[in-house]
Amino acid sequence: MMSAPAELRNVSASSGKVSLNDPYDNTVVIPPMPDYSGRILAYTSTSIVIATGVYQNIFVHWLLWLVAMGMVWPHVAHFITRRTFLKNSPRIRQKMLLLDCAFGGSLIGAMGLVAIPTTAIVLMLMFSCLIVGGVRQWLFGTALTGASLAATVAVLGSADNLQAPLLTSVIAVLATGVYICVTAYYSHVQARALLYAKTQIQNQREQSIALSHKLSKYLSPQVWQSIFTGERDVRLETQRKKLAVFFSDIKGFTELSEEMEPEALTELLNHYFNEMSQVALRYGGTIDKFVGDSIMVFFGDPTSRGQREDAFACVSMAIDMRKHMKIMRQKWRSQGIKTPLEIRMGISTGYTTVGNFGAENRMDYTIIGKEVNLASRLESLAEAGEILISYETFSLIKDRIMCRDKGEITVKGFGKPVPIYEVVDFRRDMGPNRSFLEHEHSGFAMYLDSDKITERERTAILTALEDAADRLRREDDTE
Length: 479
Prior knowledge:
Elements: E1 10-11, E2 18-20, E3 28-30, H1 35-55, H2 63-83, H3 92-110, H4 115-156, H5 166-216, H6 221-228, E4 238-251, H7 253-259, H8 262-282, E5 286-291, E6 294-299, H9 307-334, E7 342-359, E8 362-368, H10 370-381, E9 387-390, H11 391-397, E10 401-409, E11 418-426, E12 436-441, E13 444-449, H12 455-478
Parallel strand pairs: 7-9
Antiparallel strand pairs: 1-2, 2-3, 4-6, 4-7, 5-6, 7-8, 9-11, 10-11, 12-13
Helix pairs in contact: 1-2, 1-5, 2-3, 3-4, 4-5, 8-9
Protein name: Adenylate cyclase 2
Domain Guanylate cyclase: 244-379
Organism: Marinobacter litoralis
């Protein structure tokens, strides 16, 4: 008959401690009422009941030997569960409690089934079983108590008078009440501690989530997700993979930086990076870094849709960036920035080394290899608004994207001249069915992407174009 704290999460086999596993911190251990103290309390309460019954001559005197054994057993049980090889036995607490149930049933049988003391001992046993192991433990404990009780009564028989004197009954009720109250108090304390621990863990979790979202700003979303989901270890390791590598920069940015104040230039650059990053993420690109006005993006790691799809996504992103740049240029012009900013891009596809580079305490997730150098070289050779790609990239996307041959270039690290191509547009957007139209003149700019226009916007655009056409016609008639 042992103390039984609430089994609220995980229970240690030897100590009965409830532990709440916190994924963001160490395990929070909530100490219950010690098994050792609880068993001493239970057996002491039972011994007082027996001694009182012997004093009033309702129990046989040899039961006093059981009192002595009951005072020794808690120490033996403590030694078994904490000092022997059994301490690592699974569910040792439940097994020891079943042994207590067997002892308790035998003791009740030896007492001759006297009503009040029997009820008191059964209550202590069943209360312990329910708290320690729930209904399952209670069923096993009840069965074992009943079996040992029946066996003892079969051998010794029951008492002639099942009614206990008033003193023995009062002592039995008080002893049981003290045991149940003390055990319930420790369970209450443990429950409060568990609630406090859960609150603390919830606060730590919220703080960790907020911190992780802040850290995500310094990593590409794909890399951040693979780290925080456990798919990728944060350690110095690399691998060889075939990737599509993209470089871009702004032609004319150096001249603009000499004309604008640093604060205005910073605002413009951040706006440009924000818009281009959204385009890159929409196509699934891994943003490697921003250097000055340059952007480096690659496709194929940490997730890949296959070499062909990765290359197509990379070139599609570049075309979208070029179109979006025209819209941004119109917005900048309305803000007083007259210098025409154009984006130029280079794309190469091939095997690179990708992974974590650096030191154990400071890593950078990036790629290296000759394909990276080739993409950078293509970007530097491109004219304003031009997208240059390598032959490997061209061979993967030529069936869906129109390109034109731009000859060959010599690149360090390549034994032969490298054929390069200029991206024109999607084949589906070539000819009369193209979705993107543009016209830009002094005093007039139009960028139309019909695939992105809703029905409501279509009506408003048609009205604006008709008004503009009517105004131009009136001015022609006036002249």
